[in-house]
Amino acid sequence: MIAEVYLHLMITLQRSLAIAKKNARIYYLKPPVLIFGLLFPSFMFLAFSIGRTINPAELVPALLGMTILFAASSVGPLITPWERQAGTYERLLTIPVSSWHIVVGDVGSSFVYGLLISLLSLFLGICIFNAGPAYPIAFILVMFLSVCCFSALGAAMAALPTDQLSNVMMLSSLIRLPMIFISGVFVPLKELPLWGQVIARISPLSYTMDLVRWSFGNPLYFNKLTSCFMLIGFTLFFLYLAHIAHRQANRIF
Amino acid sequence: MHVIKASGLYKRYGNTVAVNNISFTVERGVIFGFLGPNGAGKSTTQRILTGVTKPDAGVVEIASYNLSRQPLKAREVAGVVPEMANVYVDLSAWENLMFVGEVYGVGKKKRAERAAAMLEVFGLFEKRHLRAKGFSKGMKQRLLLCMALMGDPEVLFLDEPTSGLDVQSTLIIRELIRDYNRQGKTIFLTTHNIEEANQLCDLVAIINRGELIVVDRPENLRKTFTSLQTVEVAFQPQFISPDLLKKTDVTKRFKKQGDKYIFYTEHPGQVIFSITELCRSEGVDILSLQTLRPSLENVFLDVTGKLNESGGKENDR
Ligand SMILES: Nc1ncnc2c1ncn2[C@@H]1O[C@H](COP(=O)(O)OP(=O)(O)OP(=O)(O)O)[C@@H](O)[C@H]1O
Ligand SMILES: [Mg+2]
Hints:
The structure holds 2 protein chains of 2 kinds.
Chain A: H1 2-27, H2 31-49, H3 56-72, H4 76-86, H5 89-92, H6 99-129, H7 136-158, H8 165-182, H9 194-200, H10 204-215, H11 224-247
Helix pairs in contact in A: 1-6, 2-3, 2-6, 3-6, 3-7, 3-10, 4-7, 4-8, 6-7, 6-11, 7-10, 7-11, 10-11
Chain B: E1 2-13, E2 16-27, E3 31-35, H1 42-49, E4 57-62, E5 65-66, H2 71-76, E6 78-81, H3 93-103, H4 108-121, H5 137-149, E7 155-159, H6 167-182, E8 186-191, H7 194-200, E9 203-208, E10 211-216, H8 218-224, E11 229-236, H9 242-246, E12 254-257, E13 260-265, H10 268-282, E14 285-292, H11 296-303, H12 307-310, H13 312-315
Parallel strand pairs in B: 3-8, 3-9, 6-7, 7-8
Antiparallel strand pairs in B: 1-2, 1-4, 4-5, 9-10, 11-13, 11-14, 12-13
Helix pairs in contact in B: 3-4, 3-5
The structure holds adenosine-5'-triphosphate and magnesium ion.
């Protein structure tokens, strides 16, 4: 019984890893990934580093939060529509992988990309603004959870049943840009009007922002544990959405 | 042992019934040709058999695994070349093969050996580290076939593997199909190329408008359709009035093809008698005359109802 579960797990791991490696080779250097995952956050950093006098302990968490969101969710939305368009998705459905293997592989490759870029921007934050987290371990943990969550979000967006890349890119911007404004990135949550504070709760980025701010030595708005559980909950929800969508994928054939 | 067992497959898209209640079995070690005109439902059937499309009704078993209950097990023993599929053009031939090998759980050493051997056979070994983006259609198709073979599958599903390829690529692929079959493997070959089916297949199924019409050996198909024997005659002068030909009375089914006339008949001897008589009385010479057994092509055209269509010209010339 235990041996069986172990075997099952190993097979899942092996197949997801194969998919993740394939994704990394193909998609990390695709233009939309570079634009949203690398250039966009870099420009943010540059734009804010020039001639502003905002307190770095306020500014850097905001930049990091955005970077985590955009970097982690930049690879995921690309993969499935790209493969549908290129004609490789149909074969992916004929080799022995389940929709969970595909989802874990896609999220895994997004995760690694998101983590690398986030670490890079943490490094930039320390170098340019001389502002590092007050609780480094807590920050790394928060980053880990959040990158997971937004990678899953990316995979869920990719699962829109279409082979038009532009549809998915539009949807992903439609979801991510408003998230920045309702999640207390530029204005701390407690300074938002009441309706803003209510809406903020449906955005996973709010919890990321609150925890990142806290790890930089600012006061908390939500409860620490609640935020962590919310992020985990959102992650599972997005994973489930992506899984369902891949299972329905054969509808388009 | 049944390697493929399909029972009551049914699939519709809107108002089109793409696959209508199709059932058949394929034994181990058989090359099974799946033949039909464009839009007959061949690819849809293969997609159902390989788990890409869910049928509205019906059950598929691959090597005794129920495809809808144990999809991964069933896919582990199958290798597939889908109709519209492509290789990963951003990866090299080698990386494409390694990816598939990993998914099928082939060990690292075995993976490399198998890939190298196959690329050698397919004439791609020298180009193994180039990105597949620069590959020609034929090279991509060969690579697709390599990928399908990477897991050393029990059964191979091929959807028109040689369509649009040059003679050389076609021959390599056909030879490989025979070779793989010699190892006792089963092959499901979708094609609309009758000569290919004739040359390769142990069994041929003919499908038209979603319905399975016959399943038989190519030889039996020809034998059964005795009314499709032909007498091919070239007259001198070349043209002969249809009214005169109709007088032969033995067969009403004939058509002009090139500079010859082709008569379909169950009794070639009688046709020859009447033609020679006619020629003698009309003072027409016969340049050549030969009788032919029914070709698979004619059987195919006949059962799909296309023989009389194309022979619309048959009688009224
Ligand atoms: N995804 C789909 N959506 C709508 N209709 C479809 C779809 N796939 C197939 N069909 C229809 O089902 C019928 C059978 O198509 P199929 O592709 O199986 O034919 P085929 O025998 O493979 O033809 P070909 O020789 O052209 O490849 C056609 O009428 C086609 O229009
Ligand atoms: Mg087809």
